[in-house]
Amino acid sequence: VDVDIEVVNEVTSDLVDAFSRLLPQLSTSASPLDADALSVIVSAPASTLLIARAGGEIVGTLTLVIFPIPTGIRAWVEDVVVDEPARGKQFGGKRVAETLTAEAIAIARQAGARTVDLTTRPSRIAAGKLYERLGFEQRDSRVYRYSLL
Ligand SMILES: CC(C)(COP(=O)(O)OP(=O)(O)OC[C@H]1O[C@@H](n2cnc3c(N)ncnc32)[C@H](O)[C@@H]1OP(=O)(O)O)[C@@H](O)C(=O)NCCC(=O)NCCS
Known about the structure:
The structure is a single chain. 32% of the residues lie in helices and 30% in strands. By secondary structure, the protein is α+β, with helices and mostly antiparallel strands. The chain is globular and about 40 Å long. Bound molecules: coenzyme A (COA). The site of coenzyme A has 19 residues, from helix 1, strand 4, helix 3 and helix 4.
């Protein structure tokens, strides 16, 4: 069984089902996504929603955001999650999260992005190892958030 990465262009019922499984594994506070909410993401020009399939089943997702700003075209990787049973596993010699992230980097490069940024909490051990293995370097920068909700 191989792992295949797809850019989501349309919202199907298996996508909605997959997000009902995957989103709680990423955030306990995130609101569930119905088909309309997923359509908003899929049709947003800056957002590229990727899914990973192994044996036809959706086993992971990543969202790439690409946007032009005065210092150049920049990209962010957000909301990376692999379904628990598929974590740490290889499909056709490829790991799910690694393959998703490598595809995001390739798409960002193709779009002319200068950098791909992401943040991850120190408690997310597997995520930190994954990103460092792929060549992401830690920056000495303060991450701020102004919460509106
Ligand atoms: C982060 C995540 C996508 C990585 O997927 P994965 O299948 O575990 O990825 P990998 O198999 O490539 O494992 C990554 C590394 O972490 C290690 N690892 C996995 N779980 C671990 C754990 N609980 N403690 C310590 N190391 C762990 C793996 O052995 C591997 O190490 P290596 O790079 O030295 O080989 C997945 O763990 C996940 O979905 N986590 C919950 C959501 C999340 O944290 N998302 C990231 C948001 S930034």
